[in-house]
Amino acid sequence: MSTNNRIHAINAIAERRPDVPLATLPVDTSLQTYGDDVFGEKEIRAFLPKSAAAKLLATVNDGKPLDPSIAADVAHAMKEWALSKGATHFTHWFQPLTGGTAEKHNSFIEPAGTARAIQAFSGKNLIGGEADASSFPSGGLRSTFEARGYTAWDPTSPAFIKRHANGATLCIPTAFCAHTGEALDSKTPLLRSVQALTKALKRLMAHFGQPDGRVSVTLGAEQEYFLIDRGFYLQRPDLLQTGRTVFGAAPAKHQQLDDHYYGAIRPRILKFMTEVEAQLWKLGIPAKTRHNEVAPAQFELAPIFEDLNLAVDHNMLIMEVLRRTAERNGLECLLHEKPFSGVNGSGKHCNWSIAYGGRNLLEPGTNPKENAIFLTVLLAVIRAIDLHADLLRASTAGAGNDHRLGGNEAPPAILSIFLGDDLSAVVKAIETGTSWAARGRTKLKIGVDTLPPLPRDTTDRNRTSPFAFTGNKFEFRAPGSSQNCAQNQMVLNTIVAESLDALSDKLDAMPGDFNTNLQKLLQRLIRAHKRVLFAGDGYSAAWQREAAARGLPDLPDTISAIAPLKVSANQTLFEKYGVLTRSEMDSRYEIALEDYERRVRIEGGVALEIARSMIRPVVADEFSKLATAISIAKKDGLKVGVSGLKALSLKLGAGLDDLHVKCERLDKALAKGGAKEILAAMVDLRRTVDALEYLVDDSRWPLPKYREMLFVY
Ligand code: ADP
Ligand code: MG
Fold first, then answer.
1. Do 470 and 516 reside in the same domain of the chain?
2. Three-state SS string across 476-534, please?
3. Ligand 1 pocket test: which of 351, 361, 477 has the largest number of ligand atoms within 8 Å of its C-beta?
4. What is the per-residue pLDDT across 36-95, written as a single tens digit (0 to 9) for each?
5. Domain count, the chain
6. What is the pTM of this model?
7. Whose CA is nearest to atom 17 of ligand 1?
8. How far is the CA of 472 from the centre of ligand 2 (A)?
């Protein structure tokens, strides 16, 4: 009987029996319960007086400002509905700058005479709340003696029910601000950025003589994640405390054979996935796609795209449901960008588009005007990415994503745009004013010619591109799997708003025929910004050199990537569009920096602790056993085996010495150095520990190995 916990965990997995018979899986094929846990349109109509319902729906569906006089009615209706769902408490649900979500529950209880109580929920409690926010990151926006934070109801994202073993909680999506009104969350600037983009787009559409239309910005976020058996997870202090393995030798087989990607999904995982989907569907989250990803034990979930603000909230919920459901299934869901070195990390592909009056502007149209609009918006996006790549890069910065961006798998840290062959040909034709291949010898006249249908699926998927046009949307692949989408979407909206305005300004200043002017403008835009277009291999060293020659910024790590937040011109831009003030940008810089440094320090501390208290004793013990064996063998005058024992003891002894030296180095870096020194010392220590993993008796190695975590489940 082994005393090694790893072996016990493996045995436990081997003995697992499916706990639910196939026939009783909780799948609601009728979709009767879809959206059941959401205070949506149906619930609004059922629980609110007619006129209040109409007013609320005007805000929810048409973006009309909220009439505050209906708050009491809405609160009462929400409470009645929540009670019918078994809720005892409500909470404002918000997204502080920790990267996660936050909630503080209050029961509906109100005293009503001696030893009696009723359930109540007032309009005031719905609209706003006050929270002691002293421990949320504020980056200097709020001193602890003024530690009040305020939450404000976001009626455009519906309230929902979160269930637990003994009941449920009514969750009300809210924004979170300091008493000065400065944003302390991700939602507030996101909503501001949608407003900025809406305004700029309406202005540009007026140039095209389009009637006033509703602007909708949409997001479809593909979520990648790892699942490992919880028995292993609990034995890895590094995973427990940092979300990633700081040690672990590469197994002989990992992802070389590409045999996991799109492979048949194992029953245990499928059971997990169906449970996740059942919960998401109840929350009105349109979970659509599920599949195995590239790395072993890596998976993806993608919902159908939705209105941006809602899609962001839904992604936060998806991450939570993934974690919770994994735990219930004896699994651990790892959302870190790089839990395992040597295999692919996890991203969150953000598919983004803008629609006007119900038509997606990133979809080539069916008539000359629609195509002119399509090409104009497309070029506005290209211009935005070229001019503000640094800001977009900043939005993906973080200690976790540093291990992914620029690795040989994820998009590079250099931002470039992939358009696909067909669209590249169109752009080329506009730029050069020469004949356009798809149209024979004629020149493409903007606003006069129609484009041939650009077949979506001939756009070969350049997986190495960080920002790819995929037929009717842009897919931003740099964001990390654990990051809040609001971070990058807020930047994207703002820089595109600026670009749309720049185009409107130019058009305003050009007298004469609109189509001719537009053609000239687009041509100039392409010439000025085509350096950001790239169709080749984004992973290659040649591209790094080429990008440098083109003057594209390469910001390889968090420290360099967040620097643009402090650049005055960038702050001016965000201020101009009312998305973030200068002090809000400063605070976000401080928070990102502090978060990064703290995370690296924690990782270093965990690595040192594991190396000293888990690895070293095993190596020392094995070494001393060998030394004893050698001296006994010598004493007994054995002719064989001694040289083998000696060779091994030399290796182990050298490893032991190395381990000591490298632990000392890391210790010193933690005491006196910064993130850079700590990371370098960790890499150095890891080399020694991973080499020892191959030397030490397998049955005594204390940490679950990669080949186990990634393959045994
Ligand atoms: P892929 O081949 O990259 O998986 P999909 O068509 O499956 O492409 O889309 C991936 C994600 O993009 C999904 O969440 C999908 O709903 C979303 N998506 C599709 N069209 C749009 C759009 N117009 N705007 C935003 N997201 C979209
Ligand atoms: Mg995709």
1. yes
2. ECCCECCCCHHHHHHHHHHHHHHHHHHHHHHHHCCCCCHHHHHHHHHHHHHHHHHHHEC
3. 351
4. 999 999 999 999 999 999 999 999 988 888 899 999 999 999 999 999 999 999 999 999
5. 2
6. 0.95
7. 220
8. 12
